[in-house]
Backbone:
């Protein structure tokens, strides 16, 4: 993973500038926000599709770049080519740990992984449960929440990682490898999950792993540099993300229409996929269970440290960050009032 990150730095550095000022075709008269998004059902896609951030910040030039996994997003953060991103909790735990030590802050919880991420065995593979993955080939995007959950599932079933061949595949590549029969199972997320489930069996979902003490989340993260330089933009971004969460709760059909447009799904398909995730209410974000407030940082920091401890035990990171340092990486400025 680290080789992949270093290899990508030269490319990302060419596009990187400080304080969120983009290069290339950017209007020098406008401040710029560079957002990284992923193609999974979430309020983030509602914000993008409906242009909510552009409406809230007309004086900013806003660019959206699609990424396939948290590992590539962390690479972009290291290369200083993005300001804000939708990224899983496991990649964030890695990012806050050595050797990456990325200077960014968690400012939003997009969703809690439920049945929208799962481990699926291909029909005909001979795999009937997690324990029977021994000697099999499993695809998952390395350094992602799915990778973390796969390792947790194997650990729970008493299967050593070395007893399984784990292949680094992005979600769209998983579908191709699945069709060719190159892999026996895969841990991935929607919408690719929906496709492989058509010819496979779900062995365990992230919802089940959460109840077993290994929850995963999709988070909104902002660079420390950008947050300090443009706090008003961060506030506006949090407000529109909260607006999207409200829409998912009160009018899921409308939210699904926007999400479907982004994922090339029908509104009905998008709504069905949306129903498999767990979405918080904006008011929940400022509670002790999640982000917390300026007076008391919430338990999300503990969750990230726990994830880092597991990753250290799996020899995926060099060291576990101190809880106090992770608490400093939770952006609680203005909570709860700033969410509107």
Residues:
């Amino acid at each position: 993973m680290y080789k992949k990150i270093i290899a990508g730095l030269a490319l990302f550095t060419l596009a990187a500038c400080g304080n969120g000022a983009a290069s290339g075709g950017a209007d020098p008269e406008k401040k710029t926000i560079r957002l990284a998004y992923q193609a999974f059902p979430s309020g983030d896609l509602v914000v993008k599709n409906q242009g909510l951030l552009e409406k809230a910040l007309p004086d900013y030039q806003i660019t959206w770049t699609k990424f396939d996994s948290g590992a590539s997003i962390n690479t972009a953060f290291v290369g200083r080519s993005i300001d804000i991103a939708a990224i899983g909790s496991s990649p964030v735990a890695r990012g806050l740990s050595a050797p990456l030590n990325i200077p960014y802050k968690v400012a939003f919880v997009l969703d809690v992984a439920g049945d929208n991420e799962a481990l699926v065995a291909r029909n005909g593979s001979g795999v009937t449960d997690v324990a029977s993955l021994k000697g099999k080939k499993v695809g998952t995007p390395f350094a992602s929440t799915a990778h973390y959950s796969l390792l947790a599932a194997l650990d729970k079933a008493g299967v050593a990682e070395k007893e399984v061949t784990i292949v680094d595949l992005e979600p769209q590549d998983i579908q191709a490898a699945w069709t060719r029969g190159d892999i026996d199972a895969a841990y991935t997320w929607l919408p690719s999950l929906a496709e492989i489930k058509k010819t496979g069996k779900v062995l365990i979902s992230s919802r089940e792993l959460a109840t077993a003490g290994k929850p995963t989340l999709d988070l909104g993260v902002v660079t420390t540099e950008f947050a300090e330089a443009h706090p008003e933009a961060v506030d506006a971004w949090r407000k529109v993300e909260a607006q999207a969460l409200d829409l998912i709760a009160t009018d899921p059909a409308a939210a699904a229409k926007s999400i479907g447009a982004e994922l090339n799904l029908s509104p009905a398909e998008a709504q069905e996929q949306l129903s498999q995730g767990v979405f918080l209410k904006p008011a929940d974000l400022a509670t002790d269970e999640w982000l917390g407030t300026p007076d008391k940082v919430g338990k999300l920091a503990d969750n990230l440290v726990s994830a880092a401890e597991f990753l250290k035990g799996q020899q995926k990171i060099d060291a576990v960050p101190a809880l106090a340092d992770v608490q400093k990486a939770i952006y609680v400025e203005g909570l709860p009032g700033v969410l509107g």
